[in-house]
């Protein structure tokens, strides 16, 4: 193994430190930019009331185990953690639309953070910076970050779990810190939205068993697993004692029973919708990656050969989510939100390969000025939107995030401010 000389090591370290600073800046801007949107009723979505109404009742009655509809009927269709998160926010900030939503914006910021960390494990620091920008500019991430809905919370805990397992499997880490992230992340995902939280555990164990040199038994830590299982199952056990098996039956119908009814032709419809959505939901990054695939196929193929295990992990995670929701009779593009951190990582890696393959100075100059114009244009849209419409602000933020991250990743390697 050839070691790097000291100058290369220092340069790489500076690049990593500066990339982390830039990623932190993206997260900070994301939080500050969307914070003013939280109290606005124009972004209200009807199913927010399922969680806010129940949380308000919990604060008023002191019954923190039983969620209710506004009509007074019990609601066991989703687990308890999201209600508790909203209740905690009410305790701190009082009951308001802002306090109902602030935890979800924080969760969105943490999704960006874990996207960065996941990508750094899979592909590297420069790719990680771009991946965090890809997620920050995604409309599904935006919409789920400013509403009281469990999707972004579930995405956060699934990403946390995957990050823990990736370090255990790909990096050979044996610190209990990563075991806690892996299993407690899965447990909190179960406590947030149900059975999908078990997927990172099952997927990671299967993936690890297919990797040479990985001892699957080293992924287990008894104390961690027992504690995580207790966290995941606590509410289900509690409501079964308090309300009987009818409570669990209501939950099961929402998670499985009602999702599989009807003509199975919807499976083909779902497959078409979700495969097409893979391109649509990650625009413009998915389109840019397709261009790189066509233009620099040999380099991208080289990425697969050098990072085969990582690429297969991303593909396997996406296909696992696809297989689950293709069988459901409800079509929602946001169900694929848990795949976005890993897909963002892969797209960033493909785009970086395309950048490495560029040889034309004229093309580099055009790209540089296009990104500078994007930064300026994004800033102007933000200022203009503050006077006209907040949707213009959102568009400006997306352009600004993408332009800044691409410019830093492509043109300021090792010299990030």
Descriptive account of the structure:
With 417 residues, the chain is an all-alpha fold. The protein has a domain at 260-351. It has helices at 6-34, 48-61, 81-93, 97-122, 125-136, 139-145, 151-169, 176-193, 199-209, 222-243, 245-255, 266-280, 285-295, 297-306, 308-326, 340-356, 361-387, 390-411. Helix 4 (97-122) crosses helix 6 and helix 8 (176-193) runs parallel beside helix 10. Mean pLDDT is 82; it is low at 413-417.
Quick recap:
This protein has 18 helices and no strands.
Question: How do the strands and helices of this protein lay out in sequence?
Answer:
Elements: H1 6-34, H2 48-61, H3 81-93, H4 97-122, H5 125-136, H6 139-145, H7 151-169, H8 176-193, H9 199-209, H10 222-243, H11 245-255, H12 266-280, H13 285-295, H14 297-306, H15 308-326, H16 340-356, H17 361-387, H18 390-411
Poorly predicted spans: 413-417
Q: What is the tally of helical segments?
A: 18
**Quaternary structure annotation:** single chain
Global structural class: mainly alpha
Instruction: Give me the count of strands.
Output: 0
What do the pLDDT scores average to? Answer: 82
Q: What overall form do the CA principal axes indicate?
A: globular
Largest sheet descriptor: none
As a percent range, the share of strand residues is under 5%
H/E element sequence: HHHHHHHHHHHHHHHHHH
Computed CA radius of gyration, to the nearest angstrom: 22 Å
Instruction: Report helical residue fraction.
Output: over 70%
Q: How far is the N terminus from the C terminus?
A: 32 Å
Keywords, separated by commas or semicolons:
single chain, 417 residues, mainly alpha, 18 helices
């Amino acid at each position: 193994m050839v070691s790097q000389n000291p100058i290369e090591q220092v340069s790489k370290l500076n690049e990593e430190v500066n990339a982390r600073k830039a990623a932190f800046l993206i997260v900070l801007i994301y939080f500050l930019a969307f914070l003013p949107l939280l109290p606005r009723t124009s972004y209200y979505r009807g199913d927010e009331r399922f969680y806010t109404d129940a949380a308000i009742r919990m604060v008023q009655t002191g019954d923190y185990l039983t969620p209710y509809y506004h009509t007074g009927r019990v609601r066991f269709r989703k687990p308890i953690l999201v209600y508790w998160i909203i209740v905690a926010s009410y305790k701190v900030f009082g009951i308001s639309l802002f306090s109902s939503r602030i935890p979800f914006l924080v969760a969105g910021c943490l999704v960006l953070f874990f996207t960065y960390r996941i990508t750094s494990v899979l592909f590297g620091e420069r790719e990680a910076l771009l991946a965090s920008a890809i997620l920050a500019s995604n409309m599904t991430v935006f919409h789920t970050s400013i509403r009281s809905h469990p999707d972004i919370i579930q995405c956060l805990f699934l990403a946390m779990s995957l990050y823990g397992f990736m370090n255990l499997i790909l990096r050979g880490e044996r610190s209990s810190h990563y075991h806690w992230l892996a299993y407690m992340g899965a447990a909190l995902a179960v406590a947030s939205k149900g059975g999908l939280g078990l997927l990172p555990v099952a997927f990671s164990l299967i993936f690890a068993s297919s990797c040479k040199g990985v001892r699957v038994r080293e992924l287990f830590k008894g104390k961690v697993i027992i504690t995580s299982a207790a966290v995941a199952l606590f509410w289900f056990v509690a409501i079964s004692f308090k309300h009987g098996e009818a409570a669990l039956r209501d939950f099961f119908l929402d998670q499985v029973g009602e999702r599989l009814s009807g003509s199975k032709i919807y499976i083909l419809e779902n497959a078409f919708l979700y495969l097409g959505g893979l391109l649509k939901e990650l625009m413009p990054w998915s389109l840019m990656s397709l261009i790189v695939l066509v233009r620099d196929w040999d380099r991208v193929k080289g990425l697969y050969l050098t990072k085969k295990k990582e690429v297969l992990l991303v593909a396997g995670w996406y296909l696992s989510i696809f297989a689950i929701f293709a069988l459901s009779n409800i079509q929602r593009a946001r169900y694929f939100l848990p795949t976005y951190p890993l897909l963002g990582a892969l797209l960033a890696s493909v785009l970086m390969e395309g950048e490495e393959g560029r040889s034309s100075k004229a093309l580099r100059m055009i790209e540089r000025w296009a990104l500078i114009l994007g930064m300026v244009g994004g800033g102007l849209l933000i200022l203009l939107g503050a006077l006209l419409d907040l949707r213009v602000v959102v568009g400006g933020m997306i352009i600004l995030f993408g332009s800044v991250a691409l410019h830093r990743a492509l043109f300021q390697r090792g010299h990030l401010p």
